[in-house]
Task: structure prediction
Amino acid sequence: MDPQLTTTAELPLPVNAARAVSRPVLGALGTVGRFGMLLLELVRALPEWRVWVPRALEQCEQVGYGSLLIVLLTSAFAGAVASLQAGYQFTGNIPLYVVGAIVSESVILELGPVMTGLLLAGRIGARYAAELGTMRVTEQVDALESLGRNPASHLLLPRVIAGLVMLPALVALADATGILSGWVVAKSSIHITNADYAYGTHRYFRTFDLWYSVIKAEAFGAVVTVIPCFVGYEAKEGAEGVGRATTTAVVAACVVILLLDMLLAKLLL
Amino acid sequence: MIELKNVHKRFGHHVVLDGVDFTVADGETVALLGPSGTGKSVLLKHIIGLLRPDVGDVLVDGESVPGLKRRALTKLRTRIGYAFQTGALFDSMTVYENIRLGITDETCYGDRDFCRARVKECLRLVNLSEDVGRLMPAELSGGMRKRVGIARAIAGRPTYLLYDEPTSGLDPVNADAMDALIERFQKELHVTSVVVSHDVRGSFKIADRIALLHNGRIRAVGTAEEFMAAKDSVVRAFLERDLEVAAEG
Result:
């Protein structure tokens, strides 16, 4: 029989089943391989600092300054809600200073880094995936390569560096804002004294908590930049492909942030 | 010299190039004709190493492009200018910055005075005024984008110029102006050019030789006169449609 005329319907069932299983497995392995290659390209682009440093500074402004307002707003509300709920649960049961401890610890360990990470996955992740996806489908990436320029040092590394530098800074500000807003709300809602709130905040605080927050911020900074860069860079098939890449980038970054959040808690706490 | 030897390329199940043999001599302008979707742009991307052949080899100045290491490939690309179909200008940069990025010599790239003079010269070569350098790509018309794309491609003083559909989407007047530009480069810059097109009339005007890509293979190669005299049914069918339209016009 001419092999070109063989259709899948004519193949034996085990062959069809093997094909059905192997195709997605091979596809997934291919994606992992290409992701690994992208990471390698990022490392290899590091010596080209004359190219990526000025571009990284531009990206830092977009990531940091551009996200500042929304990060502060969200963390202020997160701290306020944590304070209100702690007050609601503990008033009359245990000493009020515990509210200070609960607010500060939950903001530093969880709310600050995770909410900032998720926010930036939407804000920066979507932007990076759409930008790079559009550049890919309009042949701008090919044009860069044709000029003998390295897309990793021109496009990818500046974005990743910006995430790694700015996320910890944003998380530090988010932590401080969350604790302060929790303080203000606790004072007005459950009438906690400044001394009690400050005592509670210090009572259970360990310096490692801050390091933990920074480690999470670094990890999330990598996630919200590397994944969208990879997905955008791989975009195909015009506007629809760019749209698909943008959605995939945001969803994947959010899921990986939540997974990493659990993993880091298990490993570091 | 550019040589493609038995180049095969497929994307999934779709065979695009099916054993292409193709040569471009130094200083020559070759027009690569063929209907849309026959793999003309794919072939061009093989020459500059943006795509690798599944089978076969691509040689530029005797160097096997698919076998080149990263640094050697980068060096090769500094000798090749690629004018993309839509210009492929970087949206976030001004026209000046786009063209400046085409200056592939790093020492020259860092010299602001040199860059200013070179960008001005490239804009002049593509018949654009210096003021265009201040504009963003979004502010340009389709024809201007193509010309800026060509200015960027020539900024590094390449030995080879690859044009991907330089006249597609242009009105006849601008298409003629573009053809004149390609001819002028041939005379002034003495570059070796490959022009991918489906504009038969324009290709006859600018090219030393013409090649027709059909079903993933080079169906015919020759001068304009040889093409006009060809008996091959595919060649005739391809030529007649365009030339009839030209005659009617």
Summary: The first helix of chain A runs from residue 13 to 45. The interface with chain B takes residues 134-135, 138-140, 142-150 of chain A (CB under 8 Å). The radius of gyration of chain A is 24 Å.
